[in-house]
Amino acid sequence: MASSTTLTCSSFLGEPISSASSSSKPLSGATHLRFSPPPGNQCSHRCFLVFSRKLSGLEEAMRIRRERELQSSGKVRRRPPLRRGKVSARLPVPENIPKPPYVNSSSLPDLSKEPQIHDAEGIARMKAACELAARVLEYAGTLVRPSITTNEIDKAVHKMIIDAGAYPSPLGYGGFPKSVCTSVNECMCHGIPDSRQLQSGDIINIDVTVFLNGYHGDTSKTFLCGKVDEQTERLVRVTEECMNRAISACKDGANFRKIGKKISYHAERYGYGVAECFVGHGVGTVFHSEPLILHFRNDKPGCMVEGQTFTIEPILTMGSIESITWDDNWTTLTADGSPAAQFEHTILITRTGAEILTKC
Questions:
Q1: What distance in Å separates the CA atoms of residue 332 and residue 248, rounded to the nearest whole number?
Q2: Average pLDDT over the chain, rounded to whole?
Q3: Which residues are recorded as binding a divalent metal cation 2 (predicted)?
Q4: What are phi and psi of 122, to 5 degrees?
Q5: Cβ contacts of residue 23 below 8 Å, gap of 6+?
Q6: How far is CA 263 from CA 70, 133, 246, 312, in A?
Q7: What DSSP letter does each residue of 320-351 carry, written as one string?
Q8: Binding site: residue ranges?
Q9: Measured between alpha carbons, how far is 140 from 347 in angstroms, rounded to an integer?
Q10: What is the model's pLDDT at position 33?
Q11: What SS3 class is residue 163?
Q12: How is the chain split into domains, by residue range?
């Protein structure tokens, strides 16, 4: 589940941090580049300036191309805006199932400042929690079809989790009323399951977190419902590719900023925006902790450590990365109503790379 920013984690948290210290912008003009041409080469400075202008115009060119594709393609069907359905009562959890400490409070827990680095026993428990989360998510995906409600998906997920002797981590987190997040179409993150029926052409991110034997396992995926138009299907595919490319850059000693660089570079090739208001997070015995994982280009310091677990969960948009949040204080949509997609894995940092713990 994200943490939201002004920045925030996209798994579930809403912990504000200063974007001024963490974000750096992509190239925006030739004036940001300084070159000293070698003596005797009169055209080098001019060539560098031309090259820098081409770089700075890439993002704008891709945005324009995407808009033209959307306007010219008869295959893209504009869907009506997402509307709130009826939210049913909170589902019960058997007393014998261990619960995380935040369950009996409606306040949003503070972000833990300690990164979560595990010994052998902790890693084994993390793997068990993440394996269950992955199986639950895979099952939830099989339910996605036209006419099913997100509330029905929530009930099925809830039952599978408690039948496994685990607790659905979102339930009661900061007052969240359901056991899973279901974010449809333009919903970026933290959609609350309700009575709305899925329709052919929808996309839906299902975000599953389970609390098992004292550890949280966190994962999400965007699924296609029925016949989805080509442009939206590509957005979903590229979002998953961004996540996988970011994971490939992770290992003991690697800089966290490599994650945002990998994601931004691949997203911009297709003209997509990368949401800056939701971030990944440390996860383990605590649902959300440092480090916060920025999915966009940034200069945030810090390196990964062997034995550490955290989520990578980028959100890509087909239009604006600005967002609006409904008065339920959870459901967050793209400001312009454009589709958004998200994928998430919990990973374990090893000496030579990263192990995906939530992979089926």
A1: 29
A2: 86
A3: 218, 281, 313, 344
A4: -60, -40
A5: 276, 294, 296, 297, 298
A6: 23, 24, 6, 10
A7: ---EEE-TTSS-EEETT---EEE-BEEEEE-S
A8: 190, 207, 218, 281, 288, 313, 344
A9: 21
A10: 30
A11: helix
A12: 2-22+111-356
The number of beta carbons lying within 10 Å of the beta carbon of residue 169 is 32
d(CA 74, CA 299): 41
Q: What are the residues whose beta carbons fall under 8 Å from the beta carbon of 50, sequence distance 6 or more?
A: none
For 261-305, what is each residue's pLDDT tens digit? Answer: 999 999 999 999 999 999 999 999 999 999 999 999 999 999 999
CA separation for the pair 332, 347 (Å, rounded): 25
How many whole angstroms separate alpha carbon 19 and alpha carbon 112?
Answer: 19
144-164: per-residue pLDDT in tens?
999 999 999 999 999 999 999
What tens digit of pLDDT does each residue of 110-145 get?
Answer: 999 999 999 999 999 999 999 999 999 999 999 999
Residues tagged in the binding site annotation for substrate: 190, 288
Residue 173 phi/psi, 5-degree rounding, is -75, 110
In terms of CATH architecture, what is 2-22+111-356? Alpha-Beta Complex (3.90)
Residues 112, 115, 119, 124, CA torsion sign:
positive
Mark 95-131 as b/e (b = at least 16 C-beta within 10 Å): eeeeebebeeeeebbebbeebbebeeebbebbbbbbb
